[in-house]
Design brief:
The structure is a homotrimer.
Chain A: E1 11-20, H1 24-34, E2 41-44, E3 48-49, E4 54-55, E5 66-76, E6 82-92, E7 100-107, H2 111-128, E8 133-144, E9 149-158
Parallel strand pairs in A: 1-4, 2-5
Antiparallel strand pairs in A: 1-9, 3-7, 5-9, 6-7, 6-8
Chain lengths: ~160, ~160, ~160
């Protein structure tokens, strides 16, 4: 069978942000801007780091690009509520040859709770896949809602 | 850092439609057909007009293509209910160099309400981004549910 | 008008799986693994078989690839509950020239119910499109929830 020449991202980057807005969608949009991904056309994916895919702390992608991203978010219109989101990446010991795993989480809780949750999800997923974990990378945001608030955490897959 | 040669759509087109169906998914599918996008594999994106991306009132895309689309929709099974959806595009004064912004909205309301809502969301988003608005393009649909109804409004990003 | 040289998948394959997890997302992830799609970056599409797209019972796609998939799923945390998901593909009589149609369904029911449901949705959709059905392909999964369970059924579009 002929091998499928598919698109496999070369780099991954962690992003996170938080914001207020006058509506739920503008709060979400403002959170994307706060995470420095507000000028992309984000496509949601579930949720693998390809073998050999390299972590980059920074990225330069042209505005308007289609960009794949595994992400979690929450939008809330209850003033005073604490909301948070987190993503974590499980990097395999043999990351040149084996996939890594992305997990995302969001809830009405402080960010350390979201962080612990995603990290334990990564551990569960990697264990289920019988892969040793070399490292877990993560990022998160926390926000106290004023009017309508949103938090967003994601892993960009690009390049 | 090497620049990412990403996919950036060249054209955008506004689409909208409404329909009935025997189930929620077939009502949605029929609304896609009514909007003239029923023969595409639509991928949801959030929600940017790339710099220099050109508005086209018409489009010719081959059936079965993967097509990116920012959209809003609502499916409703309450006979007699009025539902509507709308999308609006904020075109920047400097649209050759600056991104535009897409907002979408849907609710149990008449379409002029959905239109006003998305337009105000575009204004909020463009103001937040400190961009002057040259023009706002929009489209919408309204439907009175008979059995199970759906409305759909979107911005195709293609070419 | 210049024709858009878009991406049109060449092959489609049916996939389905079920699993338990400690959280909703890990249950879903484990169901993807059970369906042999756990190592891909899955992008949700709605829901067309391109003209001439060929059914393949097997596929070989590199880990970490972006893969388009029309799918249905359900995640449930009620021990003892029966959950199921199904997808069906309506293949047109003139499938070299005409698109086929994908429908997906999931609910708290046994899988024969989900199968009948998606098949009737395919019939409705193809009838609405005035296309004769040559064949309906389908797959499904059923699961009795222990702690947190998930089922997933999809149509991969690839190649």
């Amino acid at each position: 069978m002929k091998h499928f020449s598919s698109y496999i991202p070369k780099y991954f980057s962690l992003v996170t942000g938080k914001a207020e807005g006058n509506t739920k969608l503008t709060a979400f949009d403002n959170a994307l801007l706060s995470a420095n991904v507000g000028d992309y056309n984000i496509v949601k994916v579930s949720s693998i780091i390809p073998p050999g895919c390299v972590f980059m702390s920074d990225y330069k992608i042209e505005p308007g690009s289609i960009v794949y991203c595994a992400y979690g978010f929450i939008i809330c219109n209850l003033p005073g509520e604490i909301i948070s989101s987190a993503v974590a990446v499980g990097v395999s010991n043999d990351y040149e040859l084996e996939s890594g795993l992305i997990m995302e989480y969001s809830s009405k809780c402080i960010k350390t709770v979201s962080e612990e949750k995603v990290k334990s999800m990564v551990v569960e997923g990697m264990t289920y896949r019988k892969k040793d974990i070399k490292d877990i990378l993560f990022t998160s945001s926390e926000h106290e809602v004023k009017k309508i608030g949103a938090v967003f955490s994601g892993v960009l897959l690009w390049g």
